[in-house]
Amino acid sequence: MVDTGALFTGAAGTAAWGAAAYQAARQWQAGAGRRTSGMITRISAAGRGGSSCTVQFMDESGTPRRFETNVRGRVGETVRVGYPAGKPQRARRIGGIAPWGFPITATAVGGVFLWVSASLLGSGGLPHVPLGR
What we know:
The structure is a single chain. The protein is about 40% helix and about 25% strand. The protein has two helices and five strands, in the order H-E-E-E-E-E-H. Strand 2 (about 50-60) and strand 3 form a beta hairpin. The model has no long low-confidence stretch (mean pLDDT about 85).
């Protein structure tokens, strides 16, 4: 009989890898397309104690644009912005490790979930470890 916990854990790991791949592809597309500089104009409180930044930039036609990002910064800070050619509405902050934080973390978490799932399926369950003496 297949352990439903192992299947759920495997599905969660697969979903985490899918989300990581999607975000990594979006980040790569932004970095491989048009590049410009933008400025952080506002920092807003986000849910659960986080914050988001509003970044303003000019697209290739000279139209002012803005987008929200959860990558930290300071008001007035100049940041690198990238977007696929002809799609400034898909702009993202590029450069450095911070924009890659979610894909890297989701890949690691997904790997742990898949390892636990494989361990559960391969051994018939996690070994019992007695607590206490």
